[in-house]
Amino acid sequence: MLLHLNLINKTILVVDDEENNWLFIKDLLEDTKVNLVWAIVGQQAIDIVSSGQKIDLILMDMKMPVLDGFETTRKIKEINNAIPVIAHTAFALPEERDKCIASGCDAYISKPFNIDEFLALINDILKNPGA
What we know:
This protein has a single domain, classed as 3-Layer(aba) Sandwich (Rossmann fold). Helix content is 40%, strand content 18%. The protein has 5 helices and 5 strands; from the N terminus they run βαβαβαβαβα. Helix 2 (42-50) runs parallel beside helix 3 (69-79). The two termini are 26 Å apart.
């Protein structure tokens, strides 16, 4: 059973170099009324955050070319530490989760993820930012 969210007036920045992942997340969140922004590379995400655009949550792929999600997250947190970041990665080993959290991510979910768990995680973070 899918968790139904109403994310109107919320903006989620999806940082992922794979278009299929972007389209999956976009389709998954379509009914929530969330505003989605897609950054294909880490520097683009940093530029969006630096611009002052309102971002409520970042979904960060950790394996990207040039600037990976770990370094991108560190740089974003230097700009605005208040924006929660969820790492989403195919690396499911416990040490990878620890590495994501150490780089500044607020939460972690491995791909392929359980849709209900993914939506619940987004809901929890947006209801309790900084928790």
